[in-house]
């Protein structure tokens, strides 16, 4: 079974654009959970462009009260700064069920690549073990085709496949080559004893094909497209539409 974790970063983008409280990320997350979503994801960035530290703690409490997974994403190597205590400090306080490590940088518009597992192997091993000691399942953002023996050597429980290149290929009508590469990487993860998550630019249009072709996907985290689609259909109907895709493939 593949579960749906809704990323509510974009609710915070709207809220921050007016500097006040609405739309409220906790209210939006609750609407997603009430519609049947299996969990909530956020990716607070050190520049606090959307999700803030106080949102992380509020969403940790909400997801705990619903008994569902809270997936916190971030770069464990980004130093703390004003308003951002660092990824490890956030995890130590919020205790997310899953910590997803992403090699993002300040200058990036959004996440656009996975880790170089060979180069980062020792540093990742240390981070994974510290986060596991906090009780978090640890997932590593990975490009399709990445060297997963090095990823497995870090001790991570899962990888999250960076699906941006698939979404782009799907939109241009030529997803077959990408899908074959993603499927091969998902099988390699299983062979190395790691579970597989997937996310980035997944949508109602491209999700079904991805899940039909790529085996063993345990979780998809979806934000940008889902929140955009919800502007027309509402959060409840949109979350239900994703759940139907997960059920119906
Ligand atoms: C890791 C990943 O693919 C998502 O967390 C994505 O990075 C969303 O982040 P933004 O909402 O800041 O684009
Ligand atoms: N991990 C991916 C995620 O949380 C959402 O990415 P997107 O759907 O906002 O591109």
UniProtKB/TrEMBL annotation:
Pfam families in the cross-refs: PdxJ (PF03740)
Active site positions: 43, 73, 200
Enzyme type, top EC level: transferase
UniProt keyword annotations, A-Z: Cytoplasm, Pyridoxine biosynthesis, Transferase
Binding annotation for 1-deoxy-D-xylulose 5-phosphate: 45, 50, 110
Record's subcellular location: Cytoplasm
Binding site for 3-amino-2-oxopropyl phosphate: 7, 18, 201, 223-224
Protein's UniProt keywords contain Zinc: no
Site (Transition state stabilizer): 160
Catalytic activity from the UniProt record: 3-amino-2-oxopropyl phosphate + 1-deoxy-D-xylulose 5-phosphate = pyridoxine 5'-phosphate + phosphate + 2 H2O + H(+)
EC annotation from Swiss-Prot or TrEMBL: 2.6.99.2
Protein role: Catalyzes the complicated ring closure reaction between the two acyclic compounds 1-deoxy-D-xylulose-5-phosphate (DXP) and 3-amino-2-oxopropyl phosphate (1-amino-acetone-3-phosphate or AAP) to form pyridoxine 5'-phosphate (PNP) and inorganic phosphate.
UniProt subunit comment: Homooctamer; tetramer of dimers.
Protein name: Pyridoxine 5'-phosphate synthase
Species classification: Bacteria, Pseudomonadati, Pseudomonadota, Gammaproteobacteria, Lysobacterales
Gene name linked to the record: pdxJ
